[in-house]
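Escalated from tier 1: coenzyme A holo job.
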Amino acid sequence: MDILIERADGVLTIALNRPDKKNAITAAMYQEMADAFFEAEKDATVRAVLIRGNGGTFSAGNDLEDFMNAPSLDHDAPVLQFLRRISTAHKPVVAAVAGAAVGVGTTMLLHCDLVYAASTAKFSLPFVQLGLVPEAASSLLLPRVAGYQRAAEKLLLGEAFDVHEALGMGFVNRAMDAEEVDAFALKQAKKLAALPASSLRVSKSLMKSAAAREVAARIDEEAEHFARMLKAPEAREAFQAFFEKRKPDFSRFD
Ligand code: COA
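Tier 2 regenerated the structure:
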């Protein structure tokens, strides 16, 4: 089981559980996570959602073998179902991040309400390095949360950055030891779960509603570019280079 779902004390926990592949997310895993968010919305006993990764890694991002097959990213594509569900969740979403958080492993955090990260956390947004473009409305939300130049550095150069930078950028609430992060995030999720659900729902909606349409539109706009670029030779070269454990060579492309 690459995704483990657990319900306890009003918290639905989604654990990425593919540690041998650093919790890289396949289409099937996006679908399971999208379905879990759908169930969480319907189930009145679920008061908060927690996302975490097993094996000391949050997520290595989208599975690159899946990317090699250039998925179409039509409206019902599992990744888009997941992004729509997490970005429109009415219930509070908490993330516990340890180890690598690559690509969607970082961009999904922009849709969470509370993000706790271990000192081992390493964030990166290597979309351009892979011949792609940002996704999950990160081209809209990261400049907003972090300021344009800080967002541009992370989204254009794609270099990894640590938890202190992420704190400074504003999308991580608190840094702590790796051994503490899962338990602390669960404790915070349980606190949320004990609060009046309707107050949480309306408060969250008040904070997010002004940007909601823009976010939804940007997810789709990015996905159009993304799907086209997945088929382009630059991305093919980047994926092959990763699996051949070498540096990509983009010099032959204009
Ligand atoms: N898709 C598919 N497989 C992946 C993967 C991904 N995104 N990320 C890691 N893996 C696989 C590796 O191929 C390797 O498989 P193998 O043992 O069969 O060779 C295994 O997971 C372990 O990865 P490895 O690179 O050896 O681990 P590491 O600790 O040295 O580095 C990362 C971890 C996450 C920094 C590194 O794996 C990485 O950069 N992955 C690619 C991330 C990426 O570009 N994601 C897409 C973002 S849009």
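The chain is about 50% helix and 15% strand.
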